[in-house]
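Service request form, structural biology core

Requester: graduate student, group of Dr. S.
Request type: structure prediction, single chain
Budget code: on file
Notes: please return the result as structure tokens.

Sequence provided:
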Amino acid sequence: MTRSAAVPHRLPSEDLGLTGRYRLDPRTADWWWSPEMFALLGLSPDGTRPCTEALLQCQHREDRARTLDALNRAVTAGRSFAVETRVLRRDGALRVLVLMGHPEPADDGAVAAVEGQCVDITSGRLAHDEDVVTALQTEVNQLRTAMASRATIEQAKGILMLLTSCSEQVAFELLAHMSSHTHRKVREVAQSIADSASGHAALPQDLRAILRDACPPAPRLH
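Core staff response, request fulfilled:
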């Protein structure tokens, strides 16, 4: 089956009820998605190959198992399904979708294909489930914070490795030691080291003292 022409993957507000179509061949595990299916998931037809993994990765992690189970039952037992799932698209929009599937039997009784639709029900669903939206957005914010903290920690480790000629493991152990003895979080210690090395702020005295004791002579931090 050939793929239709691509459409923009950002949905205007008037397209909240957009419906996508798909087809899964159980024998080859190949998928076909309509342009609307890509749009609902916030994916580009030019940069994404339709597959089970791509479908699951778009969904909230708590919804993935339910979707995969429905697909497996459709393929192995020939059971139709309709599952609700939450999608956080790359453009930052939260969508609530219903994925429906209908097995097509082959002559030998096996499932020849699973065809179905994906419908956007965001406008009606989220109006009665604002706590779901809040929880998901909070999780996204926490993930972004964790990613930023990780980057700062990696930067601080690199600074310590450069200044003290220690290994990556020793640099992290030193960060943990400084965190424990100054009652600061590791990311706060890392931020102080990064700020000091870039000249944005002086290294706090207690952190400077630990560095001096741990790796004399003291590193030249501002």
